[in-house]
Design brief:
With 480 residues, the chain is α+β, with helices and mostly antiparallel strands. The protein has 18 helices and 13 strands. Among the domains are: 108 residues, no CATH class; 100 residues, no CATH class; 107 residues, Immunoglobulin-like (Sandwich). Helix content is 42%, strand content 15%. The protein is elongated. The N terminus is likely disordered.
């Protein structure tokens, strides 16, 4: 019952806490002489492990009970004990603990939403909504899941079905799950079933050889298995000779250079929250967290802004799933930008968000207070056109919405949409001050502006002007 005694905040945190942080947490509790809470936290961590743990207990316990008849009786007794304890844990978890201590977003709720957050819910769903169960299991990915797994082994495990018993619980859970990747070859959810499938394939090959009376056919049987394995490796192996091998992923490019410079800019001391591809290169830091996890108050936070390249100069950028997260971080007062690459930004806790890199957009100077009011908080003072781009001199009257952006072009409603200040300084950080924003232009864009005139307007992520009554764009006089 230690799981029930553990503080719920600790239980919820377990599934989102990397192992090094979990050990650090337990050690800290022990040093604080909170032995009971440390024990509860450790037990909760084990209890919060995915469903695979008790299933492994049932499978291994069954193996010890029924495949060890020539062994001492203690083997069968131990197997029976492991089975009973594993099954008891399953019953306790789903019938008692999950109801008494529901997590806000457990892995069960993500895997089995159709079945009420439990794999066993498929039974009750079959009674009151059989069409839902039918549609789930007759979907092509689920229907062909087991044949797809057995095809690399030439379906030989079917000749040794007793070994498939050990793989069956894991294959069933993967089939019941709503996660699309659980039925893929590369999924780690398949890992517990692989030994049983491979051993079943070998045992099936042995039986096939005994069934084949012709000597040459018996000698060719192993070639059948090897041929199927070779085809599977080519089709789904992810190796250099495989069809799905992505060679470009192993060649250094601009993103690789960005990542190397980003890692080099982070001191060796201090906690880091970063995208998954960077985590192996930051492993020597004292604390490392995933950006995908909830905020943990890390000293450094690395943000992936590669989506800005894909949606550059389009209105869609403002409404991507990634950009609102970036905007929220840049608008914070407790984190400041300390390093910027084209695909990654590094923020440091306790740094002034208006200092450092942001200072290049906030030069000091006394300028006229008159200009074109793009919106209530921002006035355009002048637009300088040079061979490389456009420099906009702006006067901020107050902090602006963090999703404020600019339309730039020659039409009344230009398609080009740019972030202010290269997307490195949030409009929410502006005060009553002078600011400069630079926007590069292609030769064709520059020529059109010279011949047709320049139009600039403000917009928000909705695509509309910031305030009701604000014009979409203004005709702006050029200085060049």
């Amino acid at each position: 019952m230690l799981y029930a005694a553990a503080p719920q905040g600790d239980i919820v945190a377990v599934s989102r806490t990397p192992i090094p942080q979990f050990l650090k947490r337990v050690r800290a509790l022990v040093y604080q002489h909170e032995a009971r809470r440390a024990l509860c936290y450790a037990f909760a961590s084990v209890a919060a492990v995915a469903l695979v743990l008790p299933l492994l207990g049932v499978v291994l316990g069954s193996a010890a009970m029924f495949w060890t008849r020539s062994r001492p009786r203690v083997w069968r007794q131990a197997g029976a004990l492991v089975c009973v304890v594993s099954l008891a844990y399953l019953v306790l978890q789903f019938s008692v603990l999950k109801r008494l201590y529901p997590a806000s977003a457990s892995s069960y709720d993500l895997h089995f939403p159709k079945w009420g957050g439990s794999p066993f819910g498929v039974i009750s769903t079959l009674l009151h909504d059989p069409a839902l169960v039918r549609d789930h299991f007759f979907a092509p990915a689920k229907f062909w899941y087991v044949p797809k797994l057995l095809s690399p082994l030439a379906l030989l495990p079917l000749l040794a079905p007793r070994w498939l018993v050990f793989a069956l619980p894991f294959l069933a859970i993967n089939s019941i799950s709503s996660f699309p990747t659980t039925v893929e070859f590369y999924s780690h959810y398949l890992t517990p079933a692989v030994p049983a499938l491979v051993v079943g394939g070998i045992a099936g090959l042995s039986k096939l050889i005994t069934y084949l009376r012709h000597p040459r056919l018996a000698q060719a049987a192993p070639a059948l298995l090897l041929g199927c394995l070779a085809i599977a490796s080519w089709h789904d192996g992810g190796l250099p000779w495989s069809r799905d091998f992505d060679g470009a992923a192993f060649i250094a490019d601009a993103t690789t250079d960005d990542a190397e410079r980003t890692v080099a800019a982070i001191p060796s001391l201090g906690s880091v929250q970063a995208p998954d591809p960077l985590l192996p290169h930051l492993a020597e830091r004292s604390e490392v967290y995933r950006v995908a996890s909830p905020e943990v108050g890390a000293r450094f936070v690395v943000l992936d802004v590669s989506h800005r390249k894909r949606y550059a100069r389009t209105e869609d950028l403002l409404r991507t799933t990634e950009e609102p997260v970036i905007r929220a971080w840049l608008a914070r007062r407790d984190y400041g930008l300390v390093h910027a690459e084209s695909s990654m930004l590094t923020l440091e806790r306790g740094t002034d968000p208006r200092a450092g890199i942001a200072q290049r957009y906030l030069p000091h100077g006394q300028l006229p207070q008159s200009g074109i009011p793009l919106t209530r908080c921002l006035t355009l003072l002048s637009a300088w056109l040079d061979p490389q781009g456009l420099e906009l001199e702006l006067l901020a009257q107050a902090p602006c919405p963090n999703d404020l952006a600019l339309r730039i072009g020659t039409e009344t409603r230009p398609k080009r949409v740019d972030l202010l200040f290269d997307g490195l300084l949030s409009p929410a950080q502006l005060r009553d001050e002078y600011a400069v924003s630079w926007h590069s232009l292609s030769p064709l864009e520059r020529e059109r502006i010279l011949t047709r005139g320049l139009r600039i307007g403000a917009l928000r992520s909705s695509g509309d002007p910031p305030e009701q009554g604000d014009p979409v764009t203004f005709l702006v006089p050029l200085i060049h």
